[in-house]
Amino acid sequence: MKRVAVIGGGPAGLMAAxxxxxxxxxxxxxxxxxxxxxxxLASGNGRCNISNVNLSFFDYHSRQPSFVNHVLxxxxxxxFEKFCISIGLLLKxxxxxxxxxxxxxxxxxxxxxxxxxxxxxxxxxxxxxxFELKKNSDYFVLNAQKDGxxxxxxxxxxxxxxxxxLGGSNSGLQLAMALGHDIIEPYPALVGLHLExxxxxxxxxxxIDAALSLYLNGKCSETVKSDLLFTDxxxxxxxxxxxxxxxxxxxxxxxxxxxxxxxxxxxERQHLVAKMGRLCDQIPDAPVMQMLHGxxxxxxxxxxxxxxxIEGNTCCKDLNAKELRRLATKMKMWRFRVIGTHGYExxxxxxxxxxxxxxxxxxxxxxxxxxxxxxxxVLDVVGKRGGYNLHFAWASGWIAGKNI
Length: 404
Ligand SMILES: Cc1cc2nc3c(=O)[nH]c(=O)nc-3n(C[C@H](O)[C@H](O)[C@H](O)COP(=O)(O)OP(=O)(O)OC[C@H]3O[C@@H](n4cnc5c(N)ncnc54)[C@H](O)[C@@H]3O)c2cc1C
Hints:
CATH topology of the largest domain: FAD/NAD(P)-binding domain
CATH architecture of the largest domain: 3-Layer(bba) Sandwich
Largest sheet: 6 strands, antiparallel, barrel
Oligomer: single chain
Shape: elongated
CATH superfamily of the largest domain: FAD/NAD(P)-binding domain
Bound molecules: flavin-adenine dinucleotide
Mean pLDDT: 96
């Protein structure tokens, strides 16, 4: 009987352990934390956006899209659904294609996976950090709390540095590097952004539907429409998370990063000028702040007037056409310089990781170290918001477990 070690009890490691154990292999799973699947429990605000029915490599940031494509083709949503039924779990799909456990509780999948692993005889060692992994001719020596355990095959599924409070660390990358793998420098992804101007502080807590365009070295690279939350440090909310992965990668590469906020994406600029003009005609003696508050949340309106040096108590009838145009331009194209991310502690994922060119996507086996398999976020693949990261973890874990 082959002895298999799985390093990391997140979704990728649990999936690999269950799949390998179903083939009759003897599997030991090591996790540094006091329980397995801690990120599963925290995911989707405890609801766990577990997958997505619309899976495509376009939904991932990867230097090698064909790698992601292979993985998704090998284990698609239907395959995942079938697997969930095999562990006693029903799923439900929302109108936008996101998939959740029918129970609406992340704990359902964490418990079901753990129960299946234990039923199959997987030995789960918690509070067991693997601090060394060496390959000797045809076996691995793994050092955790017990010295020198020997395994024929190892799955490295130790995740990324994102969310250290839930087990995120660099340790998987270090283990891979020590065995000769190339690491693409990691960076936080799906995370809030820090802004240079401090205007956001005056708007903190205000949430709006906006369009956000990301500018890298002056060129627009992506626009998303979603909600935007002003915070103490800058911006957050789903729209921000959506552009944050590219922004963070660009910051790592020393590019100039800016975000342009369109506070009223449903209005054309000219249309907005005309609309505000009409509002001013209706309430000519009212202060301009009152008119603007008819269009935007009060605190945003106040900051916009301040930044254009327009007195809030100016009468609407005294606002000239040029000022109306300046107001509309600011509301539609408000540019901010991005100077950093809110860091790994607040990131849902990390980009970078083990170079996928060094891994066979049909088996997840390392091309550098035969017998070593890699799965999940330890690899240089990061998905968009919407269940894509968990799906990649399930899929890559399943392929690794099946091919050991
Ligand atoms: C707050 C939050 C919410 C999220 N929500 C969603 C969501 O709704 N949908 C979605 O698709 N994705 C979501 N994600 C992302 C998703 O959880 C991750 O992409 C996924 O967990 C990665 O799986 P993994 O198995 O590769 O790594 P992890 O889940 O990070 O698991 C790795 C495990 O390895 C262990 N480990 C690390 N080093 C060692 C070592 N040396 N020895 C032993 N054990 C080690 C860690 O303790 C950890 O348990 C969310 C993430 C966070 C933080």
